[in-house]
Design goal:
The chain is elongated and about 60 Å long. The protein is about 75% helix and about 0% strand. It has 4 helices and no strands. The relative contact order is 0.11. The chain is mostly helical.
């Protein structure tokens, strides 16, 4: 089955999911350019790009299920694993960077939980 003979019930969601994925990945890429430090760059774009990859995988699952006239679950498993592991990986990378920056004494590091005083209000460490 070619893309031209793909049923309309499958072509419309596949197209919409691919367009949504493209928009999400574009937003995430612009976030990488616009945001200033590692913590900002790793949070927003990581989440948006994960959703974009999930949309591409679900679109692929729909397309190949309709084209092959049998359910394809490989992409569903990949989607579940990507959606579960990407946010955890981003969080662990941010924690490692935060630990490294606090140990080196950088001033632009977010305050530790439970910090009091001016650093808790601004989110920056005092010298």
């Amino acid at each position: 089955m070619s893309a031209a003979s793909l049923p309309l019930w499958a072509a419309v969601p596949v197209t919409l999911l691919l367009l949504l994925a493209g928009c999400l990945v574009l937003i995430g890429s612009l976030g990488l350019l616009r945001l200033s430090n590692f913590y900002q760059r790793s949070h927003g774009p990581a989440m948006v790009n994960t959703l974009g990859a999930g949309c591409v995988l679900i679109a692929s699952m729909l397309y190949f299920s309709a084209a092959g006239s049998r359910p394809v679950i490989h992409e569903l498993l990949i989607t579940v694993f990507v959606l579960l592991t990407a946010p955890v990986t981003a969080m662990l990378l941010m924690r490692a960077a935060l630990h490294r920056d606090r140990r080196s004494g950088r001033n632009d590091v977010p305050a530790a939980p439970g910090a009091s005083g001016a650093s808790a209000v601004t989110g920056l460490r005092r010298e």
